[in-house]
Amino acid sequence: MPLFRKREPLAPDAPLPDHLEAIAAGRDGAVEAYVRALAARTLWVGLAQLPAGLQPGDSVELTADVEVALLGSTLPDGTGRSLLAFTEEAGVQARAPRALPVGLVGRDVLDLVVRSYDGVVVDAHARWQALASDWVGDALS
Questions:
Q1: Is residue 56 part of a domain?
Q2: Domain hosting residue 32, numbered range
Q3: How do residues 21-58 score in pLDDT, each as one tens digit?
Q4: Cβ–Cβ contacts within 10 Å for residue 91, how many?
Q5: How far apart are CA 132 and CA 6, in angstroms?
C-alpha cells in the first residue's frame, strides 16, 4: 500500500490576512475560524529527506503513517516543540533553504500537531501566527 497519493493543492477558502486581523483584534471565534481555514487548504511542511517517490514541491495526501523528519522549532514563548507549517511552498524555502517542501492536506497537518507537538507556527518566514495544540484540537472538534 502506498504511503501517499499525489494530489492538486487545495484552494484556500478565505484570505488568511482577514483571519489574522480578526485574531489581532481579539474577535470571538477568530482563532477557531483561522484553524478551520488552515484545515481546508494545503499546508506546506519542510522535510530533511523525501520518502521514495516524492519530489520537492509535490502535494500529497497521506494514506498511511510515515515517519519523516519535519521542520520544527520551539514555540515563540519557549514553552515547547512546534511544527513549522506554511501556507505557500515558497515559505518553506524562505525559512529553511535546504528543507524539501511538500504540501499536505491542512487537516492532516493539524491533526499531527494535536497528536505530536505542543503547537504550530504558521508562516514563520513572514507574518507568523503561533497556535497551541490544545487550541487547534478544540477548533477541529
A1: no
A2: 4-49+63-140
A3: 888 788 898 899 999 999 989 999 999 888 878 888 88
A4: 22
A5: 29
